[in-house]
UniProtKB/TrEMBL annotation:
Sequence similarity: Belongs to the peptidase C56 family. HSP31-like subfamily.
Source organism per UniProt: Alloalcanivorax balearicus MACL04
Gene3D superfamilies for the chain: 3.40.50.880
Keywords (A to Z) from UniProt: Lyase, Stress response
SUPFAM superfamilies, A to Z: Class I glutamine amidotransferase-like (SSF52317)
Protein name from the UniProt record: Pfp1 family protein
One Pfam family in the UniProt entry: DJ-1_PfpI
Occurrences of domain DJ-1/PfpI (ranges): 27-223
InterPro entries: Class_I_gatase-like, DJ-1/PfpI, Prot/Nucl_acid_deglycase
Organism domain of life: Bacteria
Protein backbone atom coordinates (compact mmCIF):
# COMPACT_ATOMS: atom_id res chain seq x y z
CA UNK A 1 0.00 0.00 0.00
CA UNK A 2 1.38 3.38 -1.00
CA UNK A 3 2.38 5.69 1.86
CA UNK A 4 3.12 9.43 1.89
CA UNK A 5 6.51 10.68 3.03
CA UNK A 6 7.68 14.21 3.74
CA UNK A 7 11.40 14.91 3.26
CA UNK A 8 12.95 17.85 5.11
CA UNK A 9 15.88 19.84 3.65
CA UNK A 10 17.70 23.01 4.68
CA UNK A 11 17.53 26.55 3.27
CA UNK A 12 20.97 27.54 4.61
CA UNK A 13 23.76 28.03 2.06
CA UNK A 14 26.82 28.70 4.22
CA UNK A 15 28.52 28.35 7.58
CA UNK A 16 28.81 31.40 9.86
CA UNK A 17 31.24 32.78 7.26
CA UNK A 18 29.16 33.63 4.15
CA UNK A 19 32.18 32.76 2.00
CA UNK A 20 32.19 29.19 3.33
CA UNK A 21 29.40 27.25 1.55
CA UNK A 22 27.38 24.34 2.88
CA UNK A 23 23.88 22.98 2.32
CA UNK A 24 21.99 19.72 1.81
CA UNK A 25 24.16 16.58 1.70
CA UNK A 26 22.54 15.35 -1.49
CA UNK A 27 22.95 11.58 -1.12
CA UNK A 28 21.12 11.67 2.22
CA UNK A 29 18.06 12.76 0.24
CA UNK A 30 18.59 10.70 -2.91
CA UNK A 31 19.19 7.38 -1.15
CA UNK A 32 15.91 7.74 0.72
CA UNK A 33 13.97 9.16 -2.21
CA UNK A 34 15.12 6.27 -4.42
CA UNK A 35 14.29 3.68 -1.76
CA UNK A 36 10.81 5.07 -1.13
CA UNK A 37 10.14 5.48 -4.85
CA UNK A 38 11.00 1.81 -5.45
CA UNK A 39 8.43 0.93 -2.80
CA UNK A 40 5.78 2.98 -4.60
CA UNK A 41 5.40 5.67 -1.96
CA UNK A 42 4.41 9.29 -2.63
CA UNK A 43 6.92 11.96 -1.64
CA UNK A 44 7.19 15.70 -1.13
CA UNK A 45 10.02 17.99 -0.01
CA UNK A 46 9.65 20.71 2.62
CA UNK A 47 12.12 23.16 4.17
CA UNK A 48 11.94 25.57 7.12
CA UNK A 49 11.20 28.56 4.87
CA UNK A 50 10.21 26.93 1.59
CA UNK A 51 11.92 27.67 -1.71
CA UNK A 52 15.52 26.89 -2.61
CA UNK A 53 17.56 24.23 -0.85
CA UNK A 54 21.29 24.77 -1.57
CA UNK A 55 23.61 21.79 -2.00
CA UNK A 56 26.72 21.04 0.06
CA UNK A 57 29.63 21.24 -2.43
CA UNK A 58 31.54 18.41 -0.74
CA UNK A 59 28.60 16.06 -1.24
CA UNK A 60 28.92 16.53 -5.02
CA UNK A 61 32.52 15.33 -5.23
CA UNK A 62 34.21 11.93 -5.14
CA UNK A 63 34.07 9.87 -2.97
CA UNK A 64 30.90 11.33 -1.47
CA UNK A 65 28.77 11.40 -4.61
CA UNK A 66 27.14 8.18 -5.79
CA UNK A 67 24.91 7.00 -8.62
CA UNK A 68 21.65 8.23 -7.07
CA UNK A 69 23.07 11.71 -6.48
CA UNK A 70 24.56 11.88 -9.97
CA UNK A 71 21.23 10.87 -11.48
CA UNK A 72 19.46 13.56 -9.46
CA UNK A 73 21.90 16.27 -10.63
CA UNK A 74 21.33 15.25 -14.25
CA UNK A 75 17.53 15.37 -13.96
CA UNK A 76 15.98 18.83 -14.41
CA UNK A 77 12.72 17.73 -12.85
CA UNK A 78 14.47 16.43 -9.73
CA UNK A 79 16.56 19.58 -9.38
CA UNK A 80 13.39 21.64 -9.68
CA UNK A 81 12.08 19.92 -6.55
CA UNK A 82 14.98 21.47 -4.60
CA UNK A 83 14.53 24.86 -6.22
CA UNK A 84 10.94 25.13 -5.01
CA UNK A 85 10.41 23.21 -1.78
CA UNK A 86 7.20 23.59 0.19
CA UNK A 87 7.04 25.67 3.37
CA UNK A 88 5.59 24.16 6.58
CA UNK A 89 2.41 26.25 6.35
CA UNK A 90 1.65 24.54 3.03
CA UNK A 91 1.75 21.11 4.67
CA UNK A 92 -1.13 19.29 6.34
CA UNK A 93 0.51 16.67 8.56
CA UNK A 94 -2.57 14.46 8.22
CA UNK A 95 -1.53 13.84 4.62
CA UNK A 96 1.72 12.11 5.64
CA UNK A 97 2.71 8.78 7.17
CA UNK A 98 6.35 9.72 7.79
CA UNK A 99 8.69 12.70 8.03
CA UNK A 100 12.36 12.25 7.16
CA UNK A 101 15.00 14.84 8.13
CA UNK A 102 18.00 14.93 5.80
CA UNK A 103 21.31 16.43 6.84
CA UNK A 104 24.32 18.47 5.85
CA UNK A 105 25.90 20.97 8.26
CA UNK A 106 23.47 23.64 7.05
CA UNK A 107 20.63 22.15 9.08
CA UNK A 108 22.37 23.00 12.34
CA UNK A 109 21.33 26.60 11.77
CA UNK A 110 17.74 26.39 10.55
CA UNK A 111 16.29 23.10 11.83
CA UNK A 112 16.30 23.63 15.63
CA UNK A 113 14.14 26.76 15.58
CA UNK A 114 11.75 25.70 12.82
CA UNK A 115 8.48 25.75 14.75
CA UNK A 116 6.42 24.78 11.71
CA UNK A 117 8.44 21.60 11.25
CA UNK A 118 8.18 20.87 14.96
CA UNK A 119 4.38 21.02 14.71
CA UNK A 120 4.31 18.68 11.73
CA UNK A 121 6.71 16.25 13.42
CA UNK A 122 4.73 16.21 16.65
CA UNK A 123 1.45 15.54 14.84
CA UNK A 124 2.88 12.75 12.70
CA UNK A 125 4.63 11.13 15.66
CA UNK A 126 1.63 11.28 17.97
CA UNK A 127 -0.54 9.76 15.27
CA UNK A 128 1.83 6.79 15.12
CA UNK A 129 3.66 7.85 11.96
CA UNK A 130 7.37 7.33 11.43
CA UNK A 131 9.88 10.06 12.29
CA UNK A 132 13.25 9.57 10.63
CA UNK A 133 16.52 11.51 10.60
CA UNK A 134 19.94 10.91 9.12
CA UNK A 135 23.28 12.46 10.06
CA UNK A 136 22.80 16.13 11.09
CA UNK A 137 19.09 15.73 10.37
CA UNK A 138 18.61 14.87 14.04
CA UNK A 139 19.10 18.59 14.79
CA UNK A 140 15.51 18.93 13.57
CA UNK A 141 14.38 16.94 16.60
CA UNK A 142 16.32 18.83 19.27
CA UNK A 143 13.48 21.14 20.29
CA UNK A 144 10.37 19.23 19.19
CA UNK A 145 7.93 18.88 22.06
CA UNK A 146 4.95 16.55 22.31
CA UNK A 147 1.47 17.67 23.33
CA UNK A 148 2.24 17.02 27.00
CA UNK A 149 5.20 19.41 26.84
CA UNK A 150 7.90 16.74 26.97
CA UNK A 151 10.72 16.64 24.44
CA UNK A 152 10.22 14.02 21.75
CA UNK A 153 13.82 12.79 22.12
CA UNK A 154 13.82 12.57 25.93
CA UNK A 155 14.32 8.98 27.05
CA UNK A 156 14.48 7.70 23.47
CA UNK A 157 17.37 6.07 21.65
CA UNK A 158 18.80 8.15 18.82
CA UNK A 159 21.92 8.63 16.76
CA UNK A 160 23.33 11.28 14.45
CA UNK A 161 26.65 12.74 13.38
CA UNK A 162 28.96 12.41 16.36
CA UNK A 163 31.35 15.00 17.76
CA UNK A 164 34.22 12.63 16.99
CA UNK A 165 33.17 12.67 13.35
CA UNK A 166 33.02 16.48 13.37
CA UNK A 167 36.60 16.57 14.65
CA UNK A 168 37.83 13.97 12.15
CA UNK A 169 36.07 15.81 9.31
CA UNK A 170 38.03 18.93 10.26
CA UNK A 171 34.93 21.09 10.77
CA UNK A 172 34.44 21.05 14.55
CA UNK A 173 35.58 24.67 14.93
CA UNK A 174 32.91 25.80 12.47
CA UNK A 175 30.06 24.23 14.41
CA UNK A 176 27.56 26.49 16.22
CA UNK A 177 27.12 23.79 18.88
CA UNK A 178 27.90 20.15 19.66
CA UNK A 179 24.80 18.34 18.40
CA UNK A 180 25.67 15.08 20.13
CA UNK A 181 25.98 16.84 23.50
CA UNK A 182 22.81 18.87 22.92
CA UNK A 183 20.93 15.62 22.37
CA UNK A 184 22.31 14.15 25.57
CA UNK A 185 21.45 17.35 27.48
CA UNK A 186 17.83 16.90 26.39
CA UNK A 187 17.69 13.40 27.85
CA UNK A 188 18.11 11.50 24.58
CA UNK A 189 19.78 8.11 24.80
CA UNK A 190 22.45 8.87 22.22
CA UNK A 191 24.25 5.94 20.59
CA UNK A 192 27.07 5.78 18.05
CA UNK A 193 29.01 3.10 16.20
CA UNK A 194 32.33 1.92 17.60
CA UNK A 195 34.06 3.14 14.44
CA UNK A 196 33.34 6.61 12.98
CA UNK A 197 32.00 6.97 9.43
CA UNK A 198 30.50 3.48 9.43
CA UNK A 199 26.83 2.72 8.90
CA UNK A 200 24.76 2.79 12.08
CA UNK A 201 20.97 2.91 12.38
CA UNK A 202 19.07 3.17 15.67
CA UNK A 203 15.36 2.44 16.03
CA UNK A 204 13.19 3.28 19.03
CA UNK A 205 9.59 2.43 18.25
CA UNK A 206 8.68 4.56 15.24
CA UNK A 207 11.69 6.88 15.66
CA UNK A 208 14.50 5.95 13.24
CA UNK A 209 17.88 7.65 12.99
CA UNK A 210 21.11 7.12 11.06
CA UNK A 211 24.50 8.34 12.24
CA UNK A 212 26.19 9.69 9.12
CA UNK A 213 26.06 9.81 5.30
CA UNK A 214 27.27 6.21 5.23
CA UNK A 215 24.04 5.28 7.06
CA UNK A 216 21.66 6.96 4.59
CA UNK A 217 20.61 3.90 2.61
CA UNK A 218 20.19 1.68 5.69
CA UNK A 219 18.18 4.39 7.46
CA UNK A 220 15.82 4.72 4.51
CA UNK A 221 15.39 0.96 4.35
CA UNK A 222 14.50 0.88 8.07
CA UNK A 223 11.92 3.64 7.62
CA UNK A 224 10.46 1.82 4.62
CA UNK A 225 10.22 -1.42 6.60
CA UNK A 226 8.25 0.33 9.35
CA UNK A 227 5.89 1.83 6.78
Amino acid sequence: MSKRILHVVSNVAHYADPADPTGLWLSELTHAYHEFERAGHQQRIVSPEGGQSPLEPRSLKWPNIDATAKAWLADENRMALLANTASPDQIDSADYDAIYFTGGHAVMWDYPGASGLQRITREIFERGGVVGAVCHGYCGLLNTRLSDGSLLVAGRKITGFSWTEEVLAGVAKKMPYNAEQEMKDRGALYEKALLPFTSNVVTDGHLVSGQNPQSAKATAKRVASLL
